[in-house]
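Run log // design_07
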């Protein structure tokens, strides 16, 4: 194929079509008419010798060839945008940029207050807009409408850049007058107690929880199910701060990430125990669009967040040693990669 005869604008159209999976929406996004968009799709089909999008009962669905092309086209366009973007040095002190960060409740509690403190010191005119997972989709991040997502991810788009901020264990938090503390904290004692379930890690609007659907309850309950056990959950919440408040009730236990429990380390009314069974660890990550990979403002923010995560690691380490084995070495020691 003679590349000089290829209209590179078609790659822009293909990128939007594969995101929207709808000719009308793609046309509106690009500011062209629907017939023009339909004509572009015909040209793309001729160019690649593949239908690319086919109509099914679920709407327009990408073919296997289109799914292979999507990350390649996104990467090509990101590099073109990088090449033509004007290079201007970033001045944190003078910047008036608004950074939009999606953060889970756990990340927001453990990380964002320190991030904001650093931003106020280094870039006092910068504004931070913290969004919840329910506010954001992967498409918002991919298109750069949201600068970054900080969460624990089961899956993440292949085109995204990502960085692990820390690895995390789980802790059990309860009232200092919880009757369970009168005896050794065994698995049998844990199962006899009443529990607080807390989780909200994915994107999109949440739905009600089915207490009998173990696979959707998360790692704590899956770990128990692997041992042939099930805990008695008295309350479900999506907020770690709420879980920690509820743990102050005399007969409830909250099993939550160690750093969340660490936030209450100076609260004499709460006690933290090592879970009496193994729960898989998880990683807190930040992820961002390839569109922002080489943006100077964004590079500054990413490095600031990595530095703050390292500070949290160092302060948390003495508390973390109470758990079985030390927490894994911080992945931030070598600075920001990728």
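design_07 sequence
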């Amino acid at each position: 194929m003679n590349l000089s005869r290829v209209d590179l604008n078609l790659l822009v159209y293909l990128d939007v079509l594969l995101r929207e999976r709808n000719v009308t929406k793609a046309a509106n996004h690009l500011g062209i008419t629907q017939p023009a968009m339909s004509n572009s799709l015909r040209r793309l089909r001729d160019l690649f010798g593949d239908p690319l999008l086919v109509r099914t009962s679920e709407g327009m669905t990408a073919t296997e060839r289109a799914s292979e092309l999507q990350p390649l086209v996104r990467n090509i366009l990101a590099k073109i945008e990088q090449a033509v973007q004007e290079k201007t040095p970033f001045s944190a002190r003078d910047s008036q940029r608004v950074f939009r960060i999606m953060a889970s409740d756990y990340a927001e509690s453990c990380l964002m207050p320190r991030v904001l403190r650093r931003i106020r010191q280094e870039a006092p005119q910068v504004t931070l807009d913290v969004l919840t997972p329910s506010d954001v989709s992967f498409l918002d991040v991919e298109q750069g409408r949201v600068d970054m997502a900080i969460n624990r991810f089961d899956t993440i788009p292949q085109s995204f850049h990502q960085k692990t901020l820390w690895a995390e264990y789980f802790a059990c938090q309860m009232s200092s007058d919880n009757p369970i503390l009168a005896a050794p904290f065994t698995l049998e004692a844990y199962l006899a107690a009443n529990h607080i379930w807390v989780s909200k890690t994915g994107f999109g609007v949440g739905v009600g929880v089915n207490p009998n659907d173990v696979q959707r309850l998360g790692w704590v309950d899956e770990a128990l199910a692997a041992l042939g056990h099930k805990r008695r959950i008295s309350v479900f919440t999506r907020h770690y701060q709420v879980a920690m408040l509820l743990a102050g009730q005399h007969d409830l236990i909250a099993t939550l990430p160690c750093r969340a429990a660490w936030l209450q380390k100076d609260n004499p009314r709460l006690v933290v125990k090592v879970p009496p069974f193994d729960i898989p660890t998880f990683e807190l990550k930040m992820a961002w669009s390839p569109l922002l990979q080489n943006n100077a403002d964004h590079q500054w923010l990413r490095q600031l967040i990595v530095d703050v995560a390292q500070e949290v690691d160092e302060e948390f380490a003495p508390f973390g040693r109470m758990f079985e084995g030390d927490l894994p070495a911080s992945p931030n020691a070598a600075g920001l990669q990728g």
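The first strand starts at residue 53 and ends at 56.
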